[in-house]
Structure formats: structure tokens, C-alpha cells
Design a protein that fits this description.
Length: 202
């Protein structure tokens, strides 16, 4: 459990305080218990790590918990893809899987810098990235069986053929997420052209 170290630290400090107040300072038992329970919960919440995306506290974002879960799941999927990449024996398939991992990593890094777009990437998180992780994990499982039956070979070939398609889908998702920036750059270029044309005509 993620909260275990926090629980242990809070309980330890509360216990030490209880012993100090009750045994050494001879405070009332009930007062000591109530005070130490309060100290425990206070420390437990105080020691809670602040999770930030692009310098913004996740807790303060609308739907912050959901956003953090999407990012955590995405990080897990990417770790699974990376693990599969390292286990793939076929160099060509490994290269395609590596490209998929690289694109996924770039998308995740972009979204962490632009948290307002995370909800737009829901399909990327819940479908494309998850599908890629599952496909590659199964590919490695079938590869490791060492079987060369027609069925296994066919599954391995189909999975290998799907990787470039998936990578194109990743890139399409990335382009969709960056649509605003692309339009801004295009507008800047058009403005620059117009300015240069006007200045050239003087």
C-alpha cells in the first residue's frame, strides 16, 4: 500500500508522544489518548505527498483524482510496453514496438506539460495505450512458448503487422491533441508572410 510508510511514521510519532505525556509528564490517560489520536490523523494528512502536474496541484484540479488515475494507468501501460520491447526477439518487431513506446512516452510527457488536455486524451489512455500494452504482452507470451504451429505463427505475424498501424494511431492522437498549437503556428506563419509582403511592397 502506498500509504503504509505514512501510517507507520504517523503512528510512531503519536506513540512516542503518548509515552512522553503519560509516563513522564503524568498527563491524564484520556487526554493523552485523544491528543495522540488527533496527532496521528493530523500527521497522516500533513505527510500526504503533494502530486503536481506542470506545477499545478492535482487535488486543486477539477476531476483531479480521475486525471491522476489516467496518468498512473498510462505510466503502468508504458512500463509494460517497455518491458515487452526488451523481451522481443525479432529485431524488426522490436524496432516497431520501440517506436510505439517512444511515441507513447512523448504523448505522456506533452500531456503532463499541458494537463488541460488530459481529458481530451481519454481514448488514447483507455483504448490505444492499453491495447498496445496487452498486444505486446501477449506477443511476448506466445514468443516464449517456443511453439511454431500455424496458429501461433499467425498470431505473432498479425501482432507484428498491427504495431505500425497502432503507432500511426498514436501519432494521429498526438496531432489531434496539438491541434491548437498547430493552428497558432500556422496563423503566425501566415501573419509573417503578410507582413513581409506588405513591407516588400513599400
Amino acid at each position: 500500500m502506498k500509504d503504509t510508510p505514512r501510517m507507520i511514521a504517523s503512528a510512531l510519532i503519536a506513540a512516542i508522544l503518548f509515552l512522553l505525556l503519560f509516563l513522564f509528564l503524568h498527563w491524564n490517560l484520556i487526554v493523552c489518548i485523544l491528543l495522540c489520536v488527533g496527532i496521528y490523523f493530523g500527521l497522516f494528512f500533513l505527510l500526504k505527498p503533494s502530486r503536481k502536474i506542470a506545477g499545478i496541484d492535482v487535488e486543486s484540479m477539477p476531476g483531479g483524482g480521475e486525471i491522476q488515475k489516467l496518468l498512473d494507468d498510462a505510466q503502468t501501460d508504458l512500463a509494460d510496453i517497455d518491458k515487452a520491447v526488451k523481451a522481443i526477439a525479432d529485431p524488426a518487431v522490436q524496432q516497431d514496438a520501440q517506436a510505439l513506446y517512444a511515441t507513447g512516452t512523448r504523448i505522456l510527457a506533452y500531456l503532463k506539460e499541458n494537463p488541460d488536455k488530459i481529458k481530451l486524451a481519454r481514448r488514447f489512455f483507455t483504448y490505444y495505450l492499453d491495447t498496445a500494452a496487452k498486444l505486446l504482452a501477449r506477443y511476448v507470451d506466445f514468443q516464449n512458448t517456443g511453439l511454431h504451429s500455424e496458429e501461433v505463427t499467425e498470431i505473432l505475424c498479425k501482432t507484428a503487422e498491427s504495431l505500425p498501424v497502432l503507432n500511426k494511431a498514436f501519432e494521429k492522437q498526438f496531432t489531434h491533441l496539438m491541434q491548437g498549437e498547430l493552428l497558432d503556428v500556422e496563423a503566425d506563419i501566415e501573419l509573417l508572410k503578410s507582413t513581409l509582403k506588405m513591407e516588400g511592397g513599400k
